[in-house]
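Thread: "does anyone have the structure for this chain?"

Original post by V.I.:
We have the sequence but no experimental structure in hand. Need at least a predicted one for the grant figures.
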Amino acid sequence: MKGAVLVSLFMLVVVVVQLGEAINCGEVGGALAPCVPYLTQGGDPSGSCCDGVKKVVQLTPTQQDRQDACECMKAAAARYSNLKPDAASNLPSRCGVTTAIPISPTTNCKSVP
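Reply from O.Q.:
Generated one for you, tokens below.
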């Protein structure tokens, strides 16, 4: 019985910790790093790029998560003067993903649903 209580308590702590985790720019940047060639040179996004886009979508289930990820992508996009706006706006659809998070240095991230 005591073991079952400890296991239940441990599971509760794990769930609470996971619910409290916020997305960070390192996760977003790492996931989307394979997309830089596509975003700056055009062509087709690589499989690893699309995997990264899908990962960001999975990491952003809440509006706050999406807004935080948007701020990360906005800051990253501003570092690339050769970012192709069309490539950035088309990236999710080119990867077969639907997301409300735009990739642009001018996005108002507070408006992301």
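V.I.: this helps a lot. Residues 2-20 form the longest helix (19 residues).
O.Q.: and The chain has one domain: 22-108.
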